[in-house]
Design a protein that fits this description.
The chain contains ten helices and 26 strands. With 353 residues, it is α+β, with helices and mostly antiparallel strands.
């Protein structure tokens, strides 16, 4: 009977609506539950527990459990209905696969797409904002998850941090996030009958980036344009100072004498003149080198100071696609989520996936 249940579980885990999300990678992990949960090694039943924690450790031969011995792995864990699996102190929906990788354990949450969204919305946008802005975010997050399965070659679809989308499981959910996901259930953005690669950021500072100037290649619905809706953002204006010594150190070049912008609006490149010649780096790379919390965007002017430069900038983020503060501004003026998405992704249409 247990083998039949497990085989049904494996079938369920291969549904197209489910995602494999990396939660952690460590030499050992603690698993518990809010009620009954069971563990399997491939098709073999390992054991059933009620809430109590069990430790799994990576060994040379497989995965050692604190209660049931050693197994080749991977180990699958699933909870009974209305119960949840806990990794450490955090609860998750869905099931788990734990496999050995690189001398440690890779912890993968196998979760329904819509339930995955419940756990990311509040980490990506404020759920205190107008519901239409949050619904727009839900459509984008759903589309992003289906398009950007960046880790397929590593045995999972997405990671749970900023490299993909920030996912926090049940602890990250709230009523508004679930409402926004449910109200847009299954809705994604298409361009020319294909799922559209989509992007979003906190605040564009009044000017959306052309994707070609940030990552490329060009996409017709991700062009530079004026955004008049995000002026209320606390990140609309910012400044920071960079010394020539700091620039030289981070770029690993000789003594810096001056720094210039390349291009109008959002600069395409930054020209650094130094003792050994001239270094030209993309504006996006320049921002990443110094950190996105210091150089908040690539939309800045440069003023020379006594020992370096002052960046006088606007916005926070890469500037491509949806401006979240702009979406808030549009929603506050009465726009619904379809109008918000049409503004930031012209030519794209909403379809049910």
């Amino acid at each position: 009977m247990r083998k039949i249940l497990f085989l049904l579980l494996l079938v369920n885990l291969n549904l197209s609506s489910e995602l494999r999300v990396k939660i952690a990678q460590a030499s050992a992990i603690d698993i518990s539950g809010t009620g009954y949960f069971e563990l399997y090694d491939c098709e073999n039943f390992i054991g059933r527990r009620y809430s109590a924690s069990i430790e799994l450790k990576a060994t040379a031969g497989g995965i050692l459990t604190s209660s049931y011995g050693e197994f080749l792995g991977p180990v699958f864990v699933y909870s009974f209905p209305d119960n949840y699996i806990k990794i450490g102190n955090r609860r998750y929906r869905g099931a788990f696969e734990i496999r050995r990788q690189g001398g440690g354990l890779l912890v993968i949450n196998i979760v329904d797409l819509e339930e995955y969204l419940y756990g990311i919305i509040r980490r990506e946008i404020s759920t205190d904002w107008p519901i239409e802005a949050i619904k727009a975010q839900a459509v984008l997050a759903r589309t992003f998850a289906l398009v950007n399965k960046k880790h397929k070659n590593e045995g999972f679809d997405l990671c749970s941090d900023v490299h993909c989308q920030v996912y926090g499981g049940l602890e990250a959910e709230d009523r508004t996030a679930i409402l926004a996901c449910s109200a847009t259930s299954g809705e994604v953005l298409y361009y020319n009958d294909t799922l559209a690669p989509v992007y979003y950021h906190a605040c564009c500072g009044g000017l959306i980036s052309d994707i070609r100037d940030v990552w490329g290649p060009s996409l017709p619905y991700l062009k530079s344009m004026v955004c008049p809706y995000c002026q209320a953002s606390p990140h609309y204006n910012w400044q920071c100072n960079l010394s020539f010594a700091h620039i030289a150190e981070r770029l690993r070049i000789g003594k810096v004498s001056s720094v210039e912008r390349q291009g109008q609006g959002r600069p395409k490149g930054i020209i650094v003149n130094h003792q050994g010649g001239r270094e030209i780096v993309s504006a996006n790379k320049f921002r990443n080198i110094f950190g996105s919390n210091l150089v908040k965007s690539t939309y800045f002017e440069i003023e020379e100071t006594w020992n370096g430069i002052k960046l006088i900038g606007k916005g926070w983020g890469h500037g491509v696609g949806l401006c979240q503060w702009g979406a808030k501004g549009m929603a506050s003026r009465g726009a619904d989520y379809t109008e918000i998405l049409s503004f930031y992704f012209p030519g794209c249409v909403i379809k049910i996936q």
